[in-house]
Amino acid sequence: MTGRVGLVPTMGALHAGHLALVAAARAANDHVIVTIFVNPTQFAANEDLAKYPRDLPHDLELLRSAGVDVVFTPTPDLMYPAGFQTWVDVIEVAKGLEGARRPGHFRGVATVVAKLFNLTQPDEAYFGQKDAQQVAVIQRMVRDMNFPLRVVVCPTVREADGLAMSSRNVYLTPEQRAAAVAVPKALRAAAAAYAAGTRHPKDLREIMMSEVENEPAAALEYVSVAAADSLVELELPTDVPLLLSLSVRFGTTHLIDNQILPPPEP
Ligand code: PAF
Fold it and tell me: Domains in the chain and their CATH numbers?
C-alpha cells in the first residue's frame, strides 16, 4: 500500500467510541484498516470470552459507512496456530490496576497488538483513553520494541449521562445501567476536589470511594491515584500529571473509567 496507513484494532461490538477512533484515523491517513478479533489470550478462564458481544454484519455495515478501506477479521487459529509459544510481556506498567485484577490480561493484549502491528504495518495506531492502562502498556511496548509507528490516543466517548462507552455496557440490566453513572460521577467529584485544592492522593481516593459506596448496586474493585506516565500508585501529593482510575462491578459486569488531571498551575 502506498500512502499513510492508520490502524484501529478492535474486538468488534462497535460503538461510537470505536467510530471516533475510525474517524480520527480516517482524517489523518490515506488508508484505514480496522481489525476485529476477540482475542482469547487476553481473557482469563473465568472471564466473558464465550459471551463477549459479537455482531460482525452490523460492525461491517458501520465500518463501510465510516469509509474504512480494509477490515481484517482473523480467526483464533490464524493468530495462534498450533505450536504458538512467543509472548510479549510488558512488566511494570502492566502490574497494578487491571493487571492486578486480571493476571495475564496485558500479556495477551501486548502479544496480539504486536502481531496486528506486524501484520498490518501501520504508520499510526489508534486507541481510546478509556483503557488507560492498555494505552500505557502499548506505548511502552512500541518504545521498547522499536515499532516504527505512532500511537494516537483519542478521548473517551461518553453517553449523555457521562457513562464511558464500552462494548460491555450491553450486559447491564436497566437498573445497573442507571446505577453505573456512579463511575463517572466519582471521577468528576475527585477532579472537582482537585481543582478546588485537594491534593493528597488518599483524599482523592476517598472521594471516589464514597461516591461509589453511595450506590447500592455498585461493588468497588479498586480506586487509584497514580502517576499518569508510570502508573505507580501515589502516596503523597506531587506535581506530576495524575491518572485517577477505578473499576466497579455491577452484578457480574466490570466497568472501568479514568481521568487524567494535569499538574496544578504554579
Ligand atoms: O481494546 C481492545 O478492544 C482490545 O484490547 C485490543 C486492543 C483490540 C486488543 O485485543
Answer: 5-154 (3.40.50.620), 171-261 (3.30.1300.10)
